[in-house]
């Protein structure tokens, strides 16, 4: 679910639709939105699992200060999804523990 009209911010601006691959599944997103917003709009709320207790985590602060929303993005672990804008064809995976570097773009 996306907020298409906000009482203070107004209407959601028009944006091009892009595709993300999240844990092997394609989802729709819009240019200019953060990865976390696209995931939540698609019903995905667990972004990582903690290393010790394997507990699920999602968005907490939403301003890039904590690490609850980190995921593996294009093979790079620990990307803060709340402050990282989407790009067409991004490959995003739920992070387990501290994450593993797999190479990839950027």
Set down the secondary structure blueprint.
Elements: E1 5-6, E2 10-11, E3 17-22, E4 25-30, H1 35-41, E5 48-49, E6 56-57, E7 70-73, E8 76-80, E9 90-93, E10 95-96
Distance between the termini: 30 Å
CATH class: Alpha Beta
Question: Count of DSSP helices?
Answer: 1
**Spans of at least 5 consecutive residues with low confidence:** none
Q: Quick one: how many beta strands? A: 10
Report what the structure shows.
24% of the residues are buried. This protein has one helix spanning 35-41, and strands at residues 5-6, 10-11, 17-22, 25-30, 48-49, 56-57, 70-73, 76-80, 90-93, 95-96. The longest helix is centred in the middle third of the chain and has 7 residues, at 35-41. Strands 4-3-9-7-8 form a five-stranded mixed sheet, covered by helices on one side. Strands 6-5-10 form a three-stranded mixed sheet, with no helix packed on it. The protein is 7% helix and 33% strand. With 106 residues, it is mostly beta strands. The protein has a single domain, classed as Roll (Ubiquitin-like (UB roll)). β7 and β8 (76-80) form a beta hairpin. The radius of gyration is 14 Å and the shape is globular. The protein is built from one helix and ten strands, in the order ββββαββββββ.
């Amino acid at each position: 679910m996306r907020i298409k009209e906000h009482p203070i911010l107004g209407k959601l601006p028009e944006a091009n639709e892009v595709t993300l691959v999240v844990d092997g599944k394609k989802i729709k997103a819009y240019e200019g939105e953060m990865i976390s917003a696209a995931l939540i709009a698609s019903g995905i709320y667990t972004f990582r699992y903690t290393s010790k207790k394997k507990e699920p985590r999602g968005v907490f602060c939403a301003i890039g200060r904590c690490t609850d929303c980190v995921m593996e993005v294009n093979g790079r672990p620990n990307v803060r999804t709340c402050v990282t804008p989407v790009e067409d064809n991004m490959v995003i995976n739920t992070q387990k523990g501290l994450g593993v570097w797999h190479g990839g773009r950027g």
